[in-house]
Design goal:
There is one protein chain. The protein is α/β, with parallel strands linked by helices. 28% of the residues lie in helices and 29% in strands. The strands form 2 sheets. It has a 7-stranded mixed beta sheet, sandwiched between helices. Helix 1 packs parallel to helix 3. The longest helix has 19 residues.
Amino acid sequence: MDPTNLIITSYNRTAQRYTDLYFHDQTDLPFVKKEFIARLPKNASVLDAGCGPGTFTQLFMGTNMRVTGIDLSDNMLTIARKNVPNATFLKMDISTLTFPNASFDGIIAAYSLIHILTRQVPKVLHGFHRILTPNGILCIIGQKGEADHWMDDPDVPSEKMFFNFFTKERLSSFLTKAGFSILALEEQRNTSSFAEAYIYAVAKK
């Protein structure tokens, strides 16, 4: 069963709570700034793929970079537009990107692949590869653990959520098969109870 519609419904219901929990969370910033943002050209065009409330979109404000955020949750997009008013936000599925080829110098997909079925991950990554400029940079943030599975949402226990967690080896394999070269690949322990660790990857087209 494709979990997309249930995921959208869940995030529409929990958008404000998710924002309250994570919009100011800086756990991932050291890696993102060092391994992703530092590799981008000064006037880069950046896509935040699965932007949620704009948690990562906001990192590019105050720079000369142009950032676009996409998401399927209307409520998340409404909040993102308020949080980051100078960015561009569009309703779009990361598995069916409609941007022209070579549209972006960088793409960050933070905690969005974790809601994609394993069989669809190659399609998503090939889509990212297509819309990146030559030598464009991709940043993926996910979590370590079991592949396709349903579980109680750790942030909203009354909600069931689909997760697709990774290992470093599994994520690296997906990226290389999609035509990317790995630049950085890290695992950091997670203090939460629902995933073993955070998985971070930066790759070049």
